[in-house]
Amino acid sequence: MTDTSFLHSILSPEQVSTTDADRDYHGTDWGTAAAASPPDVVVWPESTAEVSAVLSAATERGIPVTPFAAGTGIEGNAVPAHGGISLDLTRMDAVLDVRPDDLQIDVEPGVIGADVDEAVAAHGLFFPPLPTSGDMATIGGMIATNASGKRTVKYGKVGDWVREIEVVLADGSVITAGTRARKTSSGYDLRDLIVGSEGTLGVVTRATLELAGRPERTRVGRATFGTLADATAAAADLVSSGVDVSAVELVDELSARMVNDYVGSEFPEGPTLFLEFQADHGLEREVEFCRAILDAHDPVAVLLDGETDPEEVWKPRHELADAVRAYYPDLESLHAGDVAVPIGSFSSIVAHVHAVADAHDVPIPTFGHAGDGNVHFDVLVDPDEEGAVAEAHEIYESIVTEAIDLGGTATGEHGIGQGKREFLPVEHGDSGVATMRAIKEALDPHGTLNPGKVFPE
Amino acid sequence: MTDTSFLHSILSPEQVSTTDADRDYHGTDWGTAAAASPPDVVVWPESTAEVSAVLSAATERGIPVTPFAAGTGIEGNAVPAHGGISLDLTRMDAVLDVRPDDLQIDVEPGVIGADVDEAVAAHGLFFPPLPTSGDMATIGGMIATNASGKRTVKYGKVGDWVREIEVVLADGSVITAGTRARKTSSGYDLRDLIVGSEGTLGVVTRATLELAGRPERTRVGRATFGTLADATAAAADLVSSGVDVSAVELVDELSARMVNDYVGSEFPEGPTLFLEFQADHGLEREVEFCRAILDAHDPVAVLLDGETDPEEVWKPRHELADAVRAYYPDLESLHAGDVAVPIGSFSSIVAHVHAVADAHDVPIPTFGHAGDGNVHFDVLVDPDEEGAVAEAHEIYESIVTEAIDLGGTATGEHGIGQGKREFLPVEHGDSGVATMRAIKEALDPHGTLNPGKVFPE
Fold it and tell me: The FAD-binding PCMH-type domain covers which part of the protein (chains A, B) (predicted)?
């Protein structure tokens, strides 16, 4: 066991724990990509100075530090693969300043996404790119994976709404990356380098986020199609036609059936798009524009009236995660993946997922942020069955490499973590990975920060 | 003179020149920030392979390489401060592919901005962030400085519309940074690191750009105010209120007078906002929303009727650059600067520019992309007058440091180049600059690419 007694000279007793319960909790995440790997010790810093002191002392001693927040990642991003220190940032959860005139808020990294919305609602503002897990995930975690959500199709990713961040580097030095101005051409863009780097280059200790005016009106809808190809083609057409839609989510037939089974409902059991529109005015025109595009793809059921309870309209989408877990109690989602492709290739990647599922006779519920060309899927197998684990991996590899071949990416929003390391060179080539490694070595020469992530070992 | 004969084994004779005319043309830009500094030789590569061969051979020999395109920069960004090779990319000017379904276009770096618009117009698309110089500047140059333009207030910067770039590094290796998918969390964001790095980290040889649907309707307008404070407050209010406006440009009283003098016109001679609205529908509502905000700041003249010839409405803004040059024939704009601040501080920075102008009794026409909190100014002095050069620099320093103190940036869109190197540590701190230097050394250890830029020497 690593000697971590030096931490007691930096932090107070209630900020350091080596109990099994704390170590176990910080040794896993929500996914299956990483084996459980508890840290030697968990610390809860409460200031930038404390984060800096921990990092510089750990780097001096060659002890790994893995930042941890809500633990909602699924690729093992925050699982301390090499032990050492789990740096839990959830006690740094202050809203520091709200500046409605600048359309900005300053927060500490442990602030929950939904709490940002709550802090700015009184000013008529909101934080648009919140992920589905936004009522649990922290801003720091969202920045670490460059997360996104259902409204990314209209508003962009978390990274697009980060203006300035304070970052502690591995040697304990503190930098401010980005600017509070709406644009800059000053020096290298360290902000976007840190965003999405999964805690391997630095630890974000403060963030200035941009906000948007809360739209006065919201309308939701859904459309079910006779074939999956119709549904995905309709989603792609909506995006390339420029309809002002704030969410376009896909749920495939298997997923829809799982929800009905789980909820005891009778939603249409076909491939379905879930839609949301947000605007101050002109909503009806966008909805009618949308309806015309949907109609061109022979929908079997369209609900766009604006009368039905919005929660009821979207319920199949909202219940999906739990429904998948309940439907096949003996099967496990060994690869809960997320890939993204250019929108013109969205139909191809979804069709590929289903073709692979059919070829292997393995259920793969398929859903996701269709408007971003972003597909989520669960490869469900019985891990105790002979060959099942290898087959699940073969399927997973086929889907991810197909997405890359279509000009897309191995991960649209979950990050590489441990689960997707093998695909980094497939997507970025050896020279691209070598460039990333050179940056890692330049910023963290001793490899203190979150080792065992992003790069293949 | 550096021996550059090796270039003839890589390129054909018409791709290499050492004539005085070619060297002189590549030794300056549009600004006054950099002294003329001709390269030893100019080369015009026509392929990625040729760029790669030139870079690897130059790095082996320790010869500087400075990428050059349209030469429209103003901070000396593309002036070869240390001689060597000027790498002119203007012959790599092919539109490679237009994919309307993906809302994307692939281009070589030498393509002129306006030619992108022309290539996609038939598909009802356009490239939103074009700078004012978009009919001369190249895509490669825009990427190098992370340029922006009048519509950035609505659509964002050039970098926001770059999806994937092919980049040749100093050692000649070629990477693809970014992805054609609309979002990614895969590895480090090399794309945004290269964007805005002014050719000091790599040379962009291909870019996939995102496009937007061309709005069906455009309306322009302008509003003149009794005081500068009213004009800047109105601009800030427009942005923080969320009016859907596609351009908010400021021209101050001195600038307006210069235009009248130059054109022989009788435009209102007060601080004026120039406005543009773009939408498929609902334009009138946004215009009326805008009018209400303008009215709250006591405008003396508002032209928003949509009847007047658009070119006539915006003429004072369009003629401004030439008018400034003509108004004081004996004075020179020693510091044509560009700073940006959070929108809530826009009034403060503009007031500061005028206060400094008054205190020094130096004319400083002030204008710019108000909606982005981006101010442009010319410090006009007679360089032959004793002390004038030092005074101009003192004024310049006061304005740039004030912008940084207000939470802003030393440059919103022109880059650091040579002219703003002294402000890099002021804005980013010593640790920030050290981090940037570490990245520079990791990617270009021999310092081949565009030496003498960005970093203070």
Answer: 35-214
